[in-house]
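[scheduler] slot 2 assigned
[scheduler] job type: sequence-to-structure, two independent chains
[scheduler] chain ordering preserved from manifest
[runner] begin chain α
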Amino acid sequence: MNYLYFKNGVVNAAKWSSLTEVAVRLISPITHMILARVLVPDAFGVVATVSMIISFADMLTDSGFQKYLVQHEFNNEKEKFQYTTVAFWTNLSISILLWVIITIFSEQIATMVGNKGLGNVITIAGLQLPLTSFSSIQMALYKRNFDFKTLFLVRTISLSLPFVLTIPLALMGFSYWSLIVGTISGHLFNAIILTYKSKWKPTFFFNMQFLKEMLSFSIWSLIEAISIWLSTWVDTLIIGSTLNSYYLGLYKTSLNIVNALITIVTASITPILFSTLSRLQNEDSMFRSTFFKVQEIVAYVIFPIGVGLFIFHDLVTKIMLGEKWTGAGFIIGIWGLTSAIMIVYSDLNSECYRAKGMPKLSFALQVIYLLFLIPTCITALRYGFNTLVYVRTFIRFELMITSMLTMQLVLHISIKESLKRTLKPAIFSVAIGFFAFYFMQLRHNMLWNLISILLSILVYGFMVRFFAREEFKWILDMLEQKSKI
């Protein structure tokens, strides 16, 4: 392969990939803010349970073929297209089979997840499965060829569909159907455009040996994906099957808001961290020092955001969701605060496992976490929804503790050094939290709260500038280098 061609392809891919992330971060929150003011929490609760079911079926359908098609070195274009065709027909067959099963047992599934009588909703939403069997295989080929420009175009238009379809339907009173129709339309659009623009087209070809080879490669990816799915959705299953769609919509939407705000920062940092650590995987000293430095910088950015979400949770709820979602405030606050801690002391650790080629570590930690999570959530729900929220939030610290212990015992990354490096941003963030809380109490209106946020940011910036000079200079140098790149 021509090195210059490869390098230019990577740079171009990075540009379009970054533009895609920016588009997602801008369009999605705006869409959510509008829909939250039109629809009630119950509608989002119904969609959350449907999404849980479809995401699990979709995960089984893909079976990790995307990663195989992206990573595997084929002998020629013909062989690549043959493997792609086998992956496509396997995906399509499994997706149709799963859709038939979901259709047959739709009412039982709806009852199990707390939406009795809505089996037809789950059946229609299942149309996403065969549609994604087209788009997922096509996306693998586009990624393999560094054609992120096409993916950017398709993703941006798909994200814009709510403005011309979902929101108008919601305004016309179609409730959760507006969200489901919008989602299906997005998948249909992806399948049509990606297939039309692709050099590869489905043909009548199948080879069992090719399938066995892809499955043997993908089995660990599938197992890990299942464990992550369980960690992500088990609380949704418990709430949906025990309470009603109102509480589920309140809970899941609050978490989505926090994650959307925080990933604005993490989405741009974690890929860089993984790429850098991968290059240093055999240089233990440099590996550790780089991780500590990035962890420290992330702490300076994420800790105050977490504290801010905790202090100003009511304001965030009013701005992002509106008056109908007053019960979401405490969820946003506590989830935002603990998420900031988790990102610094747990989520960044997974990039180290990946960079060192140790995905089984991540899987093992997820399994241990689930052994704590599932019985704890079931027990907590007996004492009410609020108790479940608090317990579900703080049980995440079990994953953080085991992750930090694994980092020290396996990768020899010191817990003491990690805490030492992040102590200063933690102290600054707590101090600014007390300042913001006191200042917010002087008056009680939205304008004053916004002024309080602005003053808190200025005071925090002052503290970092004058009491963390070295770190401040490092951040400026990093931003300058990134802008040059």
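[runner] end chain α
[runner] begin chain β
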Amino acid sequence: MEKNNALTIPGVLLSVFLIGVFLKLARSFMIPFVLALFFYFILSPVLDLLARLKIPRPLAVALIILVLFMVLYGMGVMFYESGKSLADEIPKYSQKMGAMIDSLQVQFKLNRTWDPLIALKNLNIDQVGSVILTSLGPFLSFLSNIFLVLIFLIFMLAGRGKLNEKIIDCCSPHHATQMGRVLGHIDKKVQKYLAIKTIVCIVSGLLATLILFLFGVDFAIAFGFLTFLLNYIPSIGAFIAKVLPFLVALIQFSSFWRAAWVLIVLLAVDAVMGMIIEPKMMGKGMDLSPLLIIFSLFFWGWLWGIPGMILAVPIMAIIKIVVGSFPEMRWLDSMLAK
């Protein structure tokens, strides 16, 4: 027994290493596949609804794919145009920040050679514009992979329900019923988690856009879209989504209190969504360990970059749902929880 355990541990470590290498090398294929899998779980209830309305499956799948493509394409165009506008406006913000720093030095009678302000003033903000445009490149290549995502999604939706038929053919009636029950439980819990999380992220993004519009903050659409994406990353993502518009408002208005009110309202909305509405909709048992979240962000970010960081927490949540559905793996479910 001890010899078998000694052989098992290196085998597990080797398997994890090989899986990591495969995921790293196959990122151009795996990211669209995982994204298609997420869309599959989110859109499966829509497909089931259309089936109950007696709409033929090929037509239902075509309608879902068409609507999804139009939504993703529209979001991509809006985000890209907002990013270009932000890059074009960077020189104006550079001048405003220089004037604001001069005003602070005069107002508080600071030494002109005070290191923090001098370093901030000498910061070449104009280069930020080129950085933004450069960062839009991977985003556009990601959008080009949307076609691959849609192809994966077509086959997933078209094959929905066939797995149960294969299980019935391959297993005994008792095992087929038991396995079908477990897979159905996993399917429903993953659907619920991804659907609720996506709805909360969409509402948060729309509310952030509306708030920024009402305050007159520039690039409200870009920051709203960023809020939608970053809300998939608990705590860290939500923090970044609030700080960036605060900094832009601070430079744009040259008024700390007006920018502070923008930040306060955004934080209040985020608190209501994240601490009241989302937990009430999601229910108990989906909280992940903060240490696990940080580790997964670094791990999936190393594997797949920014898309990996956005997908990291949903992936870990799905893993938690899967292991929690098997009694012999409940210990791992407890380890993944808070």
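[runner] end chain β
[qc] chain β: Residues 186-280 form one domain.
[scheduler] slot 2 released
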